[in-house]
Amino acid sequence: MSTTQVRQGRSVPVLIGLVALPVAVGLGFVLPPLARWVREASDGTPLPLHGLVDVLADMPWSWSVPVLGALGIAAAGYVGYHAYVEALELDVADDHLEHRTDGREGWVERGEVADVFRDGRYLVLLGATGAPRARLDADTLRPAELRAAFEAHGWPWRDADPYEDAYQRWVDGRPGFSSDEHALLRRRLAERKDAAAVAEVDGALAAHGLAARVRDDRLQVRRLDVGAPTDSADGPRGAQG
């Protein structure tokens, strides 16, 4: 069975390194005089500025540039490596999707998915009830390549979230939610930067008939049985392009 692979561009880690290196070399020129200024400005004050400040202030450029340059190379390599291993990888087939992120793997059956769309930096797959089936950080993947891969295998790609109008802003204690639902929504907002925790909470919310997302650091929520799109040619689920 043929699959389409979607990967981060190989140039991304290299570009990260190329940006980090001149920054480190520049710091080699800038930090010694800056440290000397800080030491002079702090003379006669109770500020405990010693140690590293003194080391940098007394370091000549013949040392600061190569030393900080070497540290910059090491930092660039570290950042570039993690940008590579943590990037989302997709294998899209007619009947399933395989995804890998930072050593974690997942599998989604095509029959479980009714909608696929890009939500900011995330790739979102929804089930027939509107419950999130997967929410993957696809920020390093090219949008056009991502869309083309799913459309080539007959997946239901959407231009936007078909349930966009069903969301409402969540406020802790707002009527209409049980205490358990409020507790889950508090956790969803607090752990919004932890992909594994978000997936776990989204599953628990779906069991309560809820779906949530974050907009401008505010949580929005909708009921799974509210605002469902139609399958008609004029409805959101028929909007392709």
- Please count the beta strands (DSSP E, at least 2 residues each): 10
**Coarse shape:** flat
Mean pLDDT: 85
- State Rg: 25 Å
Offer a quick outline of the entry.
The chain has 241 residues and is of the alpha+beta class. Helix content is 41%, strand content 21%.
Protein described:
- The structure is a single chain.
- By secondary structure, the protein is an alpha+beta fold.
- The chain has two domains: 7-85, no CATH class; 89-238, no CATH class.
- 41% of the residues lie in helices and 21% in strands.
- The chain contains six helices and ten strands.
- Strands 1-2-3-4 form a four-stranded antiparallel β-sheet, covered by helices on one side.
- Strand 6 (122-126) and strand 7 (132-137) form a beta hairpin.
